[in-house]
Amino acid sequence: xxxxxxxxxxLEDFFRYAxxxxxxxxxxxxxxxxxxxxxxxxxxWGVRPEVGYPHQLxxxxxxxxxxxxxxxxxxxxxxxDHDGDENTQLYLLPPRGLFFMxxxxxxxxxxxxxxxMPCL
Length: 120
Fold this sequence. Notes:
The structure is a single chain. The protein has about 120 residues and is mainly beta. The protein is built from no helices and eight strands.
């Protein structure tokens, strides 16, 4: 085999793919954040337009459901699973990343009362 020949893909190579579960952009457009599994597990990643390549902002290892920037740019609101239990928890993450803070951490899903409206 020459240096320009490549081995055929392994079966596992077909099961490795990146998924974007959520995204948001800062008000000034200086950063886009993504909930993605680029590193093998779901985390929050940031992309600055001048760089163009994502950098990891969190190390939660949890499925990210939604992302929202604070209008003043102080934090990113992250909603994510906790260990796959599908009970969404809320976290605050600074735009530069690294450490996050629990905003709401519940142990079980709580059903809110639903007010039924009459059909017209």
